[in-house]
Design goal:
Helices cover about 50% and strands about 10% of the residues. By secondary structure, the chain is an alpha/beta fold.
């Protein structure tokens, strides 16, 4: 996906009705020794980092339970859509654990430090509407009979992104992701570097021409 230039947006959804991702299999984890657990969690963290580093926008369609590592997977995505009936939580402390695949870092960056601490300290599960009110998800939608309401909304979001200039979208994502980690002056420099990479693109020229000619642009990702 990282190197496929035809890919414009990636949507993460589950094939299991009522569950987005329920996190690690604790029965499997119980059979591991301390060293194996450490390696398992490190690999999981690396996977989430790889998802977060995908150059194109990513959307998590949360149509059911997103618990522990399941919510960490959703947090690694750029956008999140949840059914109002979905259940989310970093529940690790209820099992004698703490989030280990990015949850302690991505949740506070998403909803703020105080709320993130409350959810992690308590291991509380929240529904889609509560998640929306906290800013954890971008949209919440009533669940439908098929059980894929969040996925359908995610597709609608993806279809809004698809017509836009692919390189500009990628550079925008890169500028946000890099800039949020540094002071604003450094962030402005990052934005400038990303903008400079977009200037010579054919898509930028097409965007200007389409505006001048009063027609929809036809972006090709070049």
């Amino acid at each position: 996906l990282r190197f496929d230039e035809k890919v414009r947006v990636v949507v993460f959804k589950s094939e299991v009705k009522g569950v987005f991702c329920a996190g690690a299999d604790l029965k499997e984890r119980e059979k591991m020794d301390d060293t194996e657990v450490g390696l398992f969690v490190k690999r999981l963290r690396n996977l989430m980092d790889e998802i977060a580093a995908l150059p194109v926008p990513t959307i998590a369609a949360i149509d059911g339970y997103a618990l522990g590592g399941g919510l960490e997977l959703a947090l690694a995505c750029d956008l999140r859509v949840a059914a109002s009936s979905a259940k989310m939580g970093l529940i690790e402390t209820t099992r004698g654990l703490l989030p280990g695949a990015g949850g302690t870092q991505r949740l506070p960056r998403c909803i703020g430090v105080a709320l993130a601490k409350e959810l992690i300290f308590t291991g509380r599960q929240i529904d889609g509407q509560q998640a929306f009110s906290m800013g954890l998800v971008n949209h919440t939608v009533p669940q439908n009979d098929e059980g894929d309401a969040a996925y359908q909304k995610a597709l609608t979001l993806a279809e809004e992104i698809l017509p836009q200039a692919p390189i500009a979208v990628k550079m925008g994502k890169l500028a946000i992701n890099r800039g949020i980690e540094v002071d604003i002056a450094s962030g402005m420099a990052i934005e400038g570097m990303c903008y400079a990479q977009n200037i010579p693109t054919r898509d930028r020229q097409e965007g200007m021409a389409a505006f001048r000619e009063k027609r929809p642009p036809r972006f090709i990702g070049k």
